[in-house]
Design goal:
seven-stranded parallel β-sheet, 12 helices, about 40% helix, binds nicotinamide-adenine-dinucleotide, binds thymidine-5'-diphosphate
Length: about 350
């Protein structure tokens, strides 16, 4: 039996990944280590909670004691694989203050790497981002060889963590894998990121803040496709390698915002152009040919297919959204676990 330690499993992508594991790898045992910062929401995992092969450990990846406790929770047979999602993830928050990003993303990654190596983990997958490559002009794509050139404290801390992971491979021969993914969207995304924020504001007839001219381009990937790519790399990737993951879905922000308003039959008068984000990357676009060629993964959803699915999910999960927006979701851990 394979035991997988997932860090940051109560967040957006981590919780989608745990749902995928439960469905597609029912024999795997899962330990979820999450600090439950503002971005961690155990309500994302309600259906998984009671399962015998799932254990939740509240703890900070930057704390060696907490990380050791999570490994201990796997019991005698130990942890085979680590999938490391835990991070501070929002660029705007990193502009307000970079320190929590360095602590969680840089220090936290080294702590998890050290413990995983000590415990003889067989495969360590580090979930990174295309933002480590910086910004593109109107043409071209990021490949795995594109030099790292991060712009924000968030992306700089992710670049730092990537380098520590590479160092563990080069120095110690520790079997690491790195994935670098474009912008995700889908269920359970915290409504501070573009798509869920715009859906939530539009529903409440609140202004939709568009930074600068709204012509910044992102390459959107449905979270389910991302999670399947991560599982593919975990199981089939070559140690020491980096794999870019992208959706071939480039759109300017303003088109997405207008598309959401159109779907919800709301007026474009809700759009409010606001001061641009400092250091705002203009365009991201991923060349994902390596993972497609070497590991046979391809995204299954286009943006035209998965954006309506995503909108429907948020519309059908009004309670989830309201509890996140009001902060009530933060009481869930205490009610469930009683500490
Ligand atoms: P998220 O902010 O939704 O979730 C992060 C999770 O990590 C939360 O559950 C939080 O409680 C937990 N966490 C934060 N600091 C922690 C700490 N010190 N110790 C333990 N747990 C901690 O983030 P996400 O969007 O799910 O992103 C997950 C990973 O994927 C991140 O590493 C991010 O850099 C990367 N990524 C995200 C995207 C995207 O579009 N969302 C794209 C590419 C890469
Ligand atoms: P975001 O979801 O924060 O992801 P990232 O910065 O990691 O790409 O933002 C996506 C794009 O949307 C980015 O170009 C910034 C822009 N944006 C807005 O225009 N308004 C907003 O309120 C937010 C949150 C983002």
């Amino acid at each position: 039996m394979t035991t997988i330690l997932v860090t940051g499993g109560a967040g957006f992508i981590g919780s989608n990944f745990i749902h995928l594991l439960v469905k597609d790898r029912p024999d795997a045992r899962i330990v979820n280590l999450d600090a439950l910062t503002y971005a961690g929401n155990l309500e994302n995992l309600k259906e998984v909670e009671g399962q015998a092969n799932y254990t939740f450990v509240q703890g900070d990846v930057a704390s060696p004691e907490d990380v050791a406790r999570a490994f201990d929770a796997a019991g005698e047979s130990g942890v085979n694989h680590v999938v490391h999602f835990a991070a501070e993830s929002h660029v705007d928050r990193s502009i307000q203050g970079g320190l929590p990003f360095v602590t969680a993303n840089v220090l936290g990654t080294q702590v998890v790497l050290d413990e995983a190596r000590k415990r003889g983990v067989e495969r360590f997958l580090h979930v990174s981002t295309d933002e480590v490559y910086g910004s593109l002009g109107p043409t071209g794509f990021f490949t795995e060889e594109t030099p790292l050139d991060p712009s924000s404290p968030y992306s700089a801390s992710k670049a730092g963590s990537d380098m520590l992971v590479q160092a563990a491979f080069k120095t110690h021969g520790f079997p690491t894998l790195i994935t670098r993914c474009s912008n995700n969207y889908g269920p359970y995304q915290f409504p501070e990121k573009l798509i869920p924020l715009m859906i939530a504001n539009a529903r409440e007839d609140k202004p939709l803040p568009v930074y600068g001219d709204g012509m910044q381009i992102r390459d959107w990937l449905y979270v389910q496709d991302h999670c399947e790519a991560i599982l593919t790399v975990l199981e089939k990737g070559a140690p020491g390698e980096v794999y870019n993951i992208g959706g071939h879905n480039e759109y300017p922000n303003i088109e997405i915002v207008k598309g959401i308003l159109g779907h919800l039959e709301k007026s474009e008068d809700l759009i409010e152009y606001v001061t641009d984000r400092p250091g705002h990357d203009r365009r991201y676009a991923i060349d994902a040919s390596k993972i497609e060629r070497e590991l046979g993964w391809k995204p299954r959803y286009t943006f035209e297919q998965a954006l309506p699915r995503t909108l429907e999910w948020y519309l059908s999960q009004d309670e989830w959204l309201q509890r996140v927006r009001s902060g009530a979701y933060r009481d869930y851990y205490q009610l469930q676990y009683g500490t």
